[in-house]
Amino acid sequence: MKTTMNPCRSRAARMLGLALLSAATAVHAQDSVRLLPQQDRITDEAIDADLRSYEATQGRIQALNDAGRPVRDYHLSKAQCWLDVSFHEYTRNDRSAFPQAALDESVKLIAAMERGASPLPTDTPLVNDARYLRQDLWQRLRVLQGTPGFACAQQAAACGEVELVHAGNEFNQQQWRHAKPYIQIAEDLVNDAEAMARQCGGPAVAPTPAAELPVVANVLFEFDRDGRGDIRADSLQGLDRALARVAEEGLVLERVELVGHADRLQGLGAEHNEALSARRARTVQALLVERGVAADRIDYHYRGDTEQVQKCDGVKPRAALRECLLPNRRVEVRFIVR
């Protein structure tokens, strides 16, 4: 049984846990690193052996960096993030196959980089049958990879992908309550990656047209509600952060696109959900006008329950299902900038 996670624990804190291990000694390249079987992780000696495996793997990443592969490199970052989540779950006493599977992904990338393989893989497998969560975030990451500014966003994008898999694994084990903190980490990383790509420039990188990467926020509503008092406080703060980001990045706001959505609980295609999603979009439109956005620059649309980004199949009881479906009760806010 895993210990309870502190939701405030960030990916940076997990990296610190690895950094606290002593400096790794040089090791010969190998294509696999095996943790001890779960039933053997009961003595200090066994745990020390696994920690040495993590330590050695961290040393290989450091050696690749020392040899000239930058920390911001997509594949080096991804190897580090797979190692981070493996170590994090190992220290939480995760008895599933996830710590080993995540470690395997890290080692595969490390070994390929050590051999000088080209091209290196860019897929992000759903290890340990992790649930596919937040289709909207995966889609934003795919779009990001097709922009010139991705050169500046590789580290955050790679770790965002890994954290989405991490969240999907937590969903399978303990449903939405345990997946939610990792989803938030992933969403923050996606937002950071897009900001880095928009600001990317320099002699080797063509600046990315800002319109290719709008500033995005999702305003989330309570079940079957549409008023401003029914908005989740953290998502309202996210809207304000997005507005602040436009100013901080020196962007010019051309227009705002709002798309209202509802979850599936009233039945797919229900007229009720279509009207609900329209009211939600109008509520957010009014909030933006109050925050100084010109009304004639805001367009709104509504899709009812036709575009679910999180399915939550098999989630019970009813209260847990409603909470899991929260990302579907959204108004997508896209600040189109230049």
From TrEMBL:
<feature type="domain" description="OmpA-like">
    <location>
        <begin position="208"/>
        <end position="338"/>
    </location>
</feature>
<feature type="signal peptide">
    <location>
        <begin position="1"/>
        <end position="29"/>
    </location>
</feature>
<dbReference type="InterPro" id="IPR036737">
    <property type="entry name" value="OmpA-like_sf"/>
</dbReference>
<keyword id="KW-0472">Membrane</keyword>
<dbReference type="Pfam" id="PF00691">
    <property type="entry name" value="OmpA"/>
</dbReference>
<dbReference type="InterPro" id="IPR006665">
    <property type="entry name" value="OmpA-like"/>
</dbReference>
<keyword id="KW-0732">Signal</keyword>
<protein>
    <submittedName>
        <fullName>OmpA family protein</fullName>
    </submittedName>
</protein>
